[in-house]
Amino acid sequence: MERDELECFLILAEELHFGRTADRMRLSRARVSQLVQRLERRVGAPLFARTSRRVALTPLGRQLRDDLEPHHRAIDAALARAVSNARSINGVLHVGFSNPLAGEIVLKAAEAMHTEHPELAVEICEVPMADPYGQLRRGEFDVQLTEFPVREDDLSGSPGLFTEPRTLAIAAAHPLADKDAVSVEDLVEVPLLAIDGALPDYLLEHHVPTHTPSGRPIGRGPAVTNMQEALMLVAAGKGALLCAAHTATYFARPGVSYVRFMDAEPVGYGLVWRSADSNGAVQAFARTANAVARDLASR
């Protein structure tokens, strides 16, 4: 039995009037008649006795109504519970962040969420550099604030929340460290540290490009799995690292210089979650994080 046949039958069994049934279903009377006739063909016998003056249930129709009504109420109740749970903002929301600046935004959003939705606990944790989406996919995070781009078929996200300039982390003894600013074309002068992990090709190319905009190849240094390891190798002169501007503040280190780019695209950030698991808490956090990011950007 199709859903529209079920709804039509039960409403007509209650109203016993094709016009009122059509009004309640926002259908034409002809469409109501079609649905009833289709159901009767499916059953193999009349469910309603129709005359020019009245509509009545046949004995078979009364039996079907009595059998269907409790199940229909149960279905409606189950759907209502599902909708309520999807929109509810309670329990625990696990939020990941990809770097310290993203963590600062997430922390401020979590504090705001506690004020607005005290029944929701927000727990935050850093996303590993070498596995940007694994924990999200496994359900260890419900949502995460991460660098864009994200082009994963099973993940959805918000529009970009904010951007920041890119910078180059390089050994203080390297000639590029003496410049006020570098160009992306200057990357031919130093190998870039690779990232050892489960990064999709497009994201790896974003963080560790293989060529400059003019097509010249960029060398490869050792592969790393975390920021501390990367900066240790940078200080040792083993390679350079493309990073966001905030890295100079959060990861100041002897032997490492941070030089701004004059022409690199900025780093963009946004929220990402599993497409199949967006719920009220995730959407509320997205709205709150967006407001926090806007507030910080306006200062």
From TrEMBL:
Entry-linked Gene3D superfamilies: Periplasmic binding protein-like II (3.40.190.10), Winged helix-like DNA-binding domain superfamily/Winged helix DNA-binding domain (1.10.10.10)
Keywords: DNA-binding, Transcription, Transcription regulation
InterPro entries: LysR_HTH_N (IPR000847), LysR_subst-bd (IPR005119), WH-like_DNA-bd_sf (IPR036388), WH_DNA-bd_sf (IPR036390)
Lineage, broadest ranks: Bacteria, Bacillati, Actinomycetota, Actinomycetes, Pseudonocardiales
Protein name (record): LysR family transcriptional regulator
PANTHER family: HCA OPERON TRANSCRIPTIONAL ACTIVATOR HCAR, TRANSCRIPTIONAL DUAL REGULATOR HCAR-RELATED
Family, per entry: Belongs to the LysR transcriptional regulatory family.
Domain HTH lysR-type: 1-58
Record organism: Saccharopolyspora elongata
GO molecular function, one term: DNA binding
